[in-house]
Every structure is written in C-alpha cells, then in structure tokens.
C-alpha cells in the first residue's frame, strides 16, 4: 500500500539522518504519523487510544527506573 511504503521510506530516512534540518525531519515524521493513522483507521483501530496505551507503558517503565535509582 502507499501508506506502508511511505512509512518504510520515511523511517529509513529518519533513521539514517544525524543532525540536519529539524523542521524538515519533523515534517517527514508528521507525514509518517499521518500514514500510520490512516492505516489504523482502515483497520478500524483508534490510533489515539493505541498511542495513549503505549505512552502509559513508557511512563510506567520510566517511573520504575527512577525508583530503582533512589
């Protein structure tokens, strides 16, 4: 699919770049996020719910790491 191809291409570009134009990289990231949301919607998934769940996991993990250092 076009969205999947865009995601793969953009991810490869972002992964291979160090430094460079921050605004351009953020624009490419935004493009990739838009494609991911479109793919999720096509599958009947809620991208926002998925992101909130993953963010909670990350916060919980980071809190756990902080507690280990105290």
Instruction: Report the biggest beta sheet as strand number plus sense, adding barrel if it closes.
Output: none
Fraction of residues in β-strands: under 5%
Q: Number of DSSP helices?
A: 3
Provide the low-confidence segments as ranges: none
Q: What share of the residues lie within helices? A: over 70%
Structural class per helix/strand content?
mainly alpha
- How far do the termini sit from each other? 48 Å
Q: Kindly state the mean pLDDT as a whole number? A: 88
Order of helices and strands: HHH
Radius of gyration: 16 Å
Compute the number of strand runs: 0
- Sum up the overall morphology in one term: flat
Describe the structure.
The chain is mainly alpha-helical and 70 residues long. 83% of the residues lie in helices and 0% in strands. It is flat, with a radius of gyration of 16 Å. The N and C termini lie far apart (48 Å).
Which descriptors apply to this entry?
flat, 0% strand, mainly alpha, 70 residues, 3 helices, single chain
Brief account:
The protein is mainly α. The protein is built from three helices and no strands. The chain is about 85% helix and about 0% strand.
Q: Topology, pairings included?
A:
Blueprint: H1 2-15, H2 22-42, H3 47-69
């Amino acid at each position: 699919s076009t969205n999947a191809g865009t995601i793969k291409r953009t991810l490869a570009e972002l992964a291979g770049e160090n430094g460079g134009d921050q605004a351009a990289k953020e624009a490419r990231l935004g493009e990739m996020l838009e494609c991911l949301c479109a793919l999720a919607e096509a599958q009947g998934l809620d991208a926002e719910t998925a992101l909130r769940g993953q963010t909670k996991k990350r916060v919980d993990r980071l809190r756990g790491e902080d507690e280990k250092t105290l």
